[in-house]
Specification:
Blueprint: H1 5-8, H2 14-18, H3 26-40, H4 50-67, H5 70-79, E1 95-98, E2 104-107, E3 117-118
Antiparallel strand pairs: 1-2, 1-3
């Protein structure tokens, strides 16, 4: 079993930063980003809080950029163990690999073919 983001790092994951569930839909992600941006925008804070809020706003924007793109979101979820990687062919637990086109593909050892390289997790 892969460790979750919280076990690997003290840094909150993108879902925690936006305050949403892993299975949230794109509309909920966008709404959470808008609310977080409004709450943490440095221009709306006193001078002494701006540096902290600028860093928090950077993390909010980074989280939104990843989670709003379906391909990047799936890759993030698989790399951080937020959803289980199952083989695309047989459905058994597998590991994350990149195919020839650079697409992320979960593949089990039994279905592994030459030409598919393992990515470092």
């Amino acid at each position: 079993m892969q460790p979750t983001v919280s076990e690997v790092s003290s840094e909150p994951n993108h879902y925690e930063i936006l305050g949403i569930h892993v299975q949230s839909n794109p509309a909920a992600i966008r709404q959470a980003w808008k609310l977080a941006a409004w709450d943490h925008h440095p221009d709306l804070k006193p001078e002494e809080q701006r540096q902290v809020e600028t860093e928090h706003m950077r993390r909010v924007n980074e989280a939104y950029q990843v989670l709003s793109n379906p391909t990047r979101r799936r890759r993030y979820d698989l790399e951080h163990g937020l959803i289980p990687a199952k083989c695309g062919n047989c459905g058994k637990p597998g590991s994350l690999r990149l195919d020839e086109r650079g697409q992320t593909v979960p593949v089990c050892p039994a279905c592994f073919r030459p030409g598919v390289r393992v990515i470092a997790l």
